[in-house]
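User: Can you predict the 3D structure for this chain?
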Amino acid sequence: MQPYWSTHYMLPGQEHAHAHAVGEALESARESIAAMAGCESFEIVFTSGGTEANNLAILGLLGAAQPGHVLVSQLEHESVLGPLSGLPTRNPRWSIETIPCDASGLIDPKMVESMLRPDTRLVCLQGANAITGTIQPVREVADRCHNRGICLHCDATQLFGKIPVDVKHMRADTVAISGHKFYGPKGSGAIYVRRGLQLDPITFGEPREMGLRPGAENIPGCIGLGAAAGLAERCCVDANNQMSELRDHFVTQLTAQMSRPPIVLCQDSPRLPNTVAVEMPSEAKRVHDSARELAVATAQSMSPPDEFTRTLRAIGRSDSQIGRTLRVSLGWTTSNEQVERAAELIAEAFDT
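Assistant: Here is the predicted structure, written as structure tokens:
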């Protein structure tokens, strides 16, 4: 990224040899992201991250549509729920309906099919959940939607860099990508837009990025995102296997060291290799006080519910259970020693 803050500073659309070189570098980054996602490079649009990608996909798809019915899973991120919640306010003919999940953290494709209506315009289903790690059956839901001529948007920001992703096999019409989820720069991202799909811009100015995103490109961010995508494509399978082993080793170590073993949520469901949510015997926030060198996630707000709380309520956990739950995440560079140390610190926090 470094040269693109100074040496290669021109914009790619300018008529100058140096600008052409920047344009070539930008397209090379786009090709790297497309290779990671399993699509064509012209189907990739750069954004400022997963939040913008979700907003652009949802509002861009629905912008020219007649008001109607939208289905959204109750596990979605705020950047999916937010743009949808405003639709009925602007036009009461919009109807937003929530798809429930079961206690295993999964959406049932047959239930989604039963909820589709003649006026359903869009279905939103995340690829994987950030709290429980559960991986949703996107392909099965997409098949049912497409049989009815309905588009599906997938927030896949949690998938990339953790498991191999092929958006063509997934069959989602739009897919959100966030750079910092796989070691790209913060504030970088992209959206996959299926070939031939009509998407309206939601911001306006000088047309760039296939006419969907105006303004000067964040060239260093795009270059960094492309570099991270190249690493993710090459390393994903090995990282997947390693993180799965470490995640399971962490649970084994934690269970062995605690007098009252924790409960692993959604343990029998397909899950991300790096994410585990465990219900502890007492308030999960104890770990923040007793093991300050660890960075774990716990519920921050019951009212209004944050994403952590919303997700666990969706799978049927009570507020007291939510207060005892923490999420631990692993990365590509996490070591066996770090996993064992984390289990030791957490066990000490709850057994003292």
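DSSP finds twelve helices and eleven strands in the chain. The CA atoms of residues 259 and 351 lie 7 Å apart.
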